[in-house]
Design a protein that fits this description.
Blueprint: H1 31-49, E1 54-57, E2 60-63
Antiparallel strand pairs: 1-2
């Protein structure tokens, strides 16, 4: 247990810093990516368009799809 551990003194604190490589997402293309984009645009289109669709029941005109989140 009398062995001494060698200690190296760092003169510059910046010399101990190693910059990491940057990570960049790659461009994804293919059948499923196109299907996902079509589904997203279709579902968002329905979400924004459905509240303006009306249903004529007799003399009254009602909203076809009601997004009433507070009273759910």
């Amino acid at each position: 247990m009398n062995k001494q551990i060698p200690i190296r003194v760092a003169d510059e604190p910046a010399s101990m810093y190693v910059s990491e490589k940057t990570i960049h997402p790659r461009d994804v293309d293919g059948r499923f990516q196109r299907l996902r984009r079509i589904a997203v645009w279709g579902l968002l289109g329905m979400f924004y368009a459905f509240p303006w669709l009306t249903w004529h029941a007799g003399n009254a005109s009602r909203q076809l799809v009601l997004f009433d989140l507070p009273a759910r």
